[in-house]
UniProtKB/TrEMBL annotation:
Its EC number is 7.1.1.8. Residues 15-241 form the Cytochrome b/b6 N-terminal region profile domain. Residues 526-535 have a biased composition (Acidic residues). This is Cytochrome bc1 complex cytochrome b subunit. Its cofactor is heme. The chain crosses the membrane at residues 43-67, 111-132, 144-164, 210-234, 264-283, 329-356, 377-396, 416-434. InterPro entries: Cyt_b/b6_N, Cytb/b6-like_sf, Di-haem_cyt_TM. Residues 505-541 are annotated as: Disordered. It catalyses: a quinol + 2 Fe(III)-[cytochrome c](out) = a quinone + 2 Fe(II)-[cytochrome c](out) + 2 H(+)(out).
């Protein structure tokens, strides 16, 4: 007769138990794995930023193994024939070696550059999503401010990065930066001399930017990103209004396995897209620009897109140079002072303080966990469109020489288009956006009072034509109507006859509303009916 074997514990469970005996990790791990997140495509934008940042860290570390940030003069003897025998800095030479002589070097350089562009683009769109949906309101003002800080750190990090190879384009960018620094009243020349270790370009700037680029800024950014995402965890994510969703709960899916699996898949997709772009599309071909010489600047020198705005407004700003003297002292306030210090000062401070400004104007002291539709906040939406269009026009001006050349327009005319456009277009777009928002609200009200248009035309006995309107469904048990004025529209899809389809049921259906454990904060409602996750065992008594 067979004797029953004692059940063997899976190795992972055993290992988990051993770990937990020592470090008591089960409880916090279970808490994290069971955390509920709401689901919406726009919540992926922050994740694209996160994954491209990871890609920047990985590819940057590879580049740092081969790149030498030295301005020592050497003669190029690598495999790119047109530059052989030409004197250049060690930095430019090693960047060329990375492109032509290090195995996989060009691919990783291009991955690093494409990841930087994707990183900055995703932060911008992420920021717009936060702004237009009111996700920055109390209690998330601090996270908004950390975000703005991250944007400007990314901006500086990118600028320092594309200055490193010391090619013709990066030197031109540094020259503009020197001009901007010199416009700081009183201190300008000293700041510039301290940074460049004497007169521009000096022998130190690449070495200094290197320390900033690979050590100081990545460290600060990493710390702030951990804090940023930590705050999203601690304060819980916002959610769109809808059936079962209130200011006091979170309806969504658990971290494990749903979110973990999605995150892994999504990160691989982001890495894949960056690698594909690096493999297929050329970016920053430094060998075509040649080594930097202070006396050589070509037209068509554009910085990366996120810096073009600053370049653009400096290009078109009128040459208002102020000269005045106090006693024996004679001062010059160069034209760059206005767009750089005043303009950029406003552009940094206004967004940074926007949550507080809006709160003051609205006298809104409440906690907000439900997002808002842009149409329901016409002034905010208008302001957002206004500032975004100002930024886009400024950015286009950063390439005004290219437009002038390609379309055979005089550069003077381009400058005036830019100046007038920068002042007029944002104001016009504010007004249009405001009116469109009001129009959409009006439409919502009509749907509320008359129901949804079905497209079915009828004729009554006296010959009058009218359209059949489908009344909205009864409010659900939480009192939410399908389409709420000042709330989120959740129109159910209609079939061809105009009848309302039932909401999707099953695995993806959010389950019931639950109060939080202490009855105060936001409770979490998982939509995936997952069982409790065992991670290791409870501490042995
Ligand atoms: C947010 C983070 C970062 C951004 C936005 C960024 C951006 C850039 C950009 C645009 C370039 C010019 C690439 C080119 O030549 O086409 C660059 C170069 C470089 N980066 Fe980064 N980077 C970041 C983080 C890092 C990190 C963490 C490291 C190292 C640990 C690093 C190391 C380098 C090196 C060595 C170069 C010069 C190599 C070369 O240009 O060929 N970067 N970076
Ligand atoms: C390095 C750049 C950044 C990274 C890696 C990052 C990452 C994230 C992630 C992963 C989330 C949660 C998912 C989501 O809602 O998208 C998030 C949320 C958030 N981010 Fe960012 N973010 C960055 C920059 C910014 C910027 C520039 C702002 C705004 C100025 C911002 C403001 C916020 C706010 C307020 C939330 C909470 C949103 C909510 O609960 O609905 N972030 N961020």
């Amino acid at each position: 007769m067979k004797t029953k074997k004692p059940e063997r514990e899976a190795l992972s469970v055993k290992a988990g138990g051993e770990l937990d005996d020592r470090f008591q990790l089960a409880k916090p791990t279970r808490h994290i794995l069971n955390k509920v997140f709401p689901d919406h495509w726009s919540f992926l934008l922050g994740e694209i930023a996160l994954f491209s940042f990871i890609m920047l860290l990985l590819s940057g570390t590879f580049l740092a193994l081969f790149f030498e940030p030295s301005m020592a003069h050497v003669v190029y003897d690598g495999s790119y024939v047109p530059l052989q025998g030409i004197e250049m800095s060690q930095a430019y030479k090693t960047a060329l070696d990375l492109s032509f002589d290090v195995r996989g070097g060009l691919f990783v350089r291009q991955m690093h550059h494409w990841a930087a562009l994707l990183f900055m683009a995703s932060i911008l769109v992420h920021m717009l999503r936060i702004f237009f949906t009111g996700a920055f309101r109390k209690p998330r003002e601090t996270n908004w401010m950390i975000g703005i800080l991250l944007f400007w750190l990314g901006f500086t990090e990118g600028f320092a990065g594309y200055s490193l190879p010391d090619d013709g384009l990066s030197g031109t960018g540094l020259r503009i930066a020197e001009g901007m620094m010199e416009s700081i009243p009183f201190l300008g020349p000293w700041v510039s001399a301290a940074l460049f270790d004497g007169a521009f370009p000096g022998e130190m700037i690449i070495t200094r930017f290197y320390i900033v680029h690979v050590f100081i800024l990545p460290l600060i950014m990493l710390g702030l990103i951990v804090l940023h995402v930590g705050l999203v965890f601690a304060q819980k994510h916002t959610q769109w209004p809808g059936p079962g969703k209130t200011e006091h709960n979170v309806v969504g899916f658990r971290m494990f396995p749903n979110y973990v699996m999605k995150q892994v898949g999504f990160s691989v997709m982001v890495f894949g897209v960056i690698a594909l772009m690096a493999g297929l599309f050329q970016i920053n071909p430094i060998w075509l620009f040649g080594p930097y010489e202070a006396s050589v600047v070509s037209s068509g020198s554009q910085p990366d897109f996120y810096v073009m705005f600053m370049d653009g407004i400096i290009r078109i700003f009128p040459a208002w140079e102020l000269r005045f003297s106090i006693g024996e002292f004679y001062f010059v306030l160069p034209a760059v002072f206005w767009p750089f210090l005043v303009g950029m000062g406003i552009f940094v401070m206004l967004p940074l303080l926007y949550p507080m400004i809006e709160r003051r104007m609205n006298k809104d002291r409440g906690h907000h966990n439900l997002l808002q539709r842009p149409r329901d906040m016409p002034v905010r939406t208008g302001l957002g469109v206004m500032v975004s269009s100002f930024w886009v026009i400024g950015t286009l001006n950063g390439g005004n020489d290219v437009f002038a050349e390609k379309f055979d327009i005089s550069l003077n005319a381009m400058t005036w288009f830019g100046r007038i456009g920068l002042v007029l277009i944002p104001v016009i777009l504010y007004y249009l956006t405001y009116r469109i928002c009001l129009g959409l609200q009006q439409h919502d009200r009509e749907v509320l009072s008359h129901g949804v248009e079905t497209g079915i035309m009828m004729r009554d006995p006296d010959g009058r034509f009218y359209e059949v309107h489908q009344p909205l469904a009864e409010p659900d048990e939480h009192g939410h109507t399908e389409l709420e004025y000042n709330g989120w529209t959740v129109p159910k899809k209609m079939n061809r006859l105009g009848a309302l389809k039932p909401a999707r049921k099953g695995f993806f259906r959010p389950i019931e509303d639950e109060p939080s454990e202490d009855g105060k904060g936001r409770g979490e409602v998982a939509g995936d009916d997952q069982e409790e996750i065992e991670s290791g065992s409870e501490p042995k008594k």
